[in-house]
Amino acid sequence: MFVKTRASDRAKEKEETRNHIIEVTKKAFLEKGYRGVSMRDISNMSGIGLSNIYNYFKNKEEIFSCIVHPVLEAFNDMLSKHNEEPQLSVDFFSSQDLQYEFIRMTLSIVTQFREELQIILNSSQGSIFENFRQQLINRNKTIGIQYIEEMKKRYPELNTNVSSLLIELNSMNYVTVFDLIVENYNRPQKEIETFVSQYIQYGTAGWKEIMQVH
């Protein structure tokens, strides 16, 4: 029993040390960006010996990946649901309840991962994620094109002759929403919620008009 307790304590201590390294590094990336932080900086800021940090992470890129992993998973989850019900129904254009679910998913990313968003959007230069912004735009564009094609199959009476440039612009604008929230992180949460809600309502009304949903 005593041996198991000591092993459990060591495991807990290792987990706490790992989390401490991640939190310290997150603050450093927020202040200096990925390029501006070295493993020695992380050692000095965390108070953990450099050689010991390498027992937890092989390099700062691995730490960066751990920091942004949750927000990447959140984006993947949200985008994977875009071309599913209820978005693939004309009811989405007129139902506030259905639109609210999309608003909720967007706000969830913003409220849970504001710092991670700032890091991956503005502080990732030099890392393997430095092209994340363009990759997100490209993925949104692909999803948008697939959405139009699927709506054409379901509702042939709709106008689905939509310019791919408009879809790309819409994709860029959606990423800009997150930029604006990151830049205005000191704004009250209620104001951020209103902004996201109004943006999605504005976009939905525009698509409803273009696609001639009646």
UniProtKB/TrEMBL annotation:
It comes from the Bacteria. PROSITE patterns: HTH_TETR_2. One of its GO terms (molecular function) is DNA binding. Residues 38-57 bind DNA. SUPFAM superfamilies: Homeodomain-like. Keywords: DNA-binding. Residues 15-75 form the HTH tetR-type domain. PANTHER family: ACREF/ENVCD OPERON REPRESSOR-RELATED (PTHR43479), ACREF_ENVCD OPERON REPRESSOR-RELATED (PTHR43479:SF11). This is Toluene efflux pump ttgABC operon repressor. The gene is ttgR.
